[in-house]
Amino acid sequence: MKCEHYTRRNGKVPAALFLIRVMLVLWIMFMPAGPAEAHSALNRHLDLPPVEIYDGDTLLKISLADVAGYCREKTGGAGSTVDVACAYRAMQAGIEALWGKETPERDDIKVVSSLPSYTSVVSFQYLTGAGPDVRGVKAKGDFGLVLPDGTEVKDASYKNLQELSKNISLENYQFTFVRRSTGESFTVKVKDDVFSGNYFELSKKVNFGVPERATVREFEQNAAQQTVITERFLTLPPWELFEDIKQPFPVAAGVFTSAVFLLFVSGLVYSWKAKK
Asked: What pTM value is reported for the model?
């Protein structure tokens, strides 16, 4: 590709300025995933309700900040905020579906994920206590990784998961939670409208250069999408994020509707009696 550089004065760009521009473009094109804006979105919602579980006789209240901190430790700060947020909300939804208002024992929880994202894996490993270097664990839960085609992934190294991540699609965003003591299970599956239209295609270009290296514009689009999707996972109610989760009946609205109906019926009765 032929590049032409001009200045208003003499038609040439100083060599130092040209090198700065080249370095800036290279930095943008090769910077790691997980843009600052997406991390800011994560930080804005660190006050979400914690995941409460018993680890032995100790009640743990695991915050989003705890999970994000462990992920930063394992990924060097380059992990996907989307996958941290998704794992956290999926864990809450799975516990709610299987234990209701009960607080589960950590070693009664089993999670089988279909998402070979390193950030997602270490998030669930931390929550279940099954990960390496999770401090103070008394009773570990269980975590497994099984791809949508049924392939069990036993090598959870960063290198292997990065290779598998090249083929991530919406189909991977499903997580089966098992109550080990009873054998009950519930699958949390992300709804297709949570992700922007070309999120997965852009992610492949940005992170892996597949099928070709992303342009600067595509890097910007991907960063913006990560921010928006992270916000969705951290702010939308679970029934808008995941399949097969019913929206609770709005009690206040129900009471209001019932009151209006009773007033209406009372009015009819009163009118009928008045006519008599």
From this structure: 0.77
